[in-house]
Amino acid sequence: NMTSNIGESPELSIDVTDFECALCMRLLFEPVTTPCGHTFCLKCLERCLDHAPHCPLCKEKLSELLASRNFNITILAEELIFRYLSDELSDRKRIYDEEMTELSNLTRDVPIFVCAMAFPTVPCPLHVFEPRYRLMIRRCMETGTKRFGMCLSAEISEYGCMLEIKDVRTFPDGSSVVDAIGISRFRVLSHRHRDGYNTADIEYLEDEKVEGPAYEELTSLHDSVYQQSVSWFTSLQDHMKEQILSHFGLMPDRESEPQSNPSGPAWSWWILAVLPLERKAQLAILGMISLKERLLAIRRILVIITRKMNSRQELVNSRERNN
């Protein structure tokens, strides 16, 4: 209550600098206060804690705050800003909304995780510990897209796979395990950087459709290669099968309609993920938009691998006989 004893209301002198974040030097947005008494924008504090578990100003350790993720908005600061700096708050919120809109675009400046090969419909668990990728994953969750691209090399490979986040488990040290699954393939048109991580403009890839006699031939090839894949996996030693199943899950069933998915049958991507292939070969197959070519490539790979397995087994049997 700002009313004085004589019934007058003295003018309250409040300036935007009184509520300025010490990190971004802008009006506090979603203000949070640390246990040591310093107030920052929520997003600014989270980015600082990505690098070190200390208060950015006094360096007091904030391990408990990082472990609990209990970033409660400071109600008093928020209400004072809303009451006395409403115009400035509107401008600040507009800038924030524009940033979120820009970050939620799934064809332009798409966040790219540079790590390994990923395939449509195949699980891709990730351990995220680098500050740049902590920020990237958090933004994917905040914008609601829950999606990011996966590419193979630091120079950004020509093709990649879009992943969708299913769950994020955060640990006390700030790192996290991200459960993601492949959604669709894309071609990289151009790439750049944003706040330390890679981004790219992309176009999505879909398989070419075939009809008539070509479709009948494709269906026959699809069923044949599926059975060949099942036979190869069944022939593996038990410990190898257990390792594959623990990481990639069960092999998907054969689809009755091989062209029902724009990226092709799920089982074909599963088998490509578990086959012992060089990444260069995996990348070439990822970029194929002909299901027939992809199935033929899987067939050739399985034939070569089966021959090598048989040759090794014959060599072992021969040595046993000699002994």
From TrEMBL:
Keywords from the UniProt entry: Metal-binding, Zinc, Zinc-finger
Domain Lon N-terminal: 100-306
Name of protein: LON peptidase N-terminal domain and ring finger 2
The organism's place on the tree of life at top rank: Eukaryota
GO molecular-function terms, A-Z: ubiquitin protein ligase activity; zinc ion binding
SMART domains on file: LON (SM00464), RING (SM00184)
Zinc listed as a keyword: yes
Record Gene3D superfamilies: LON domain-like, Zinc/RING finger domain, C3HC4 (zinc finger)
Domain (RING-type): residue spans on this chain: 21-59
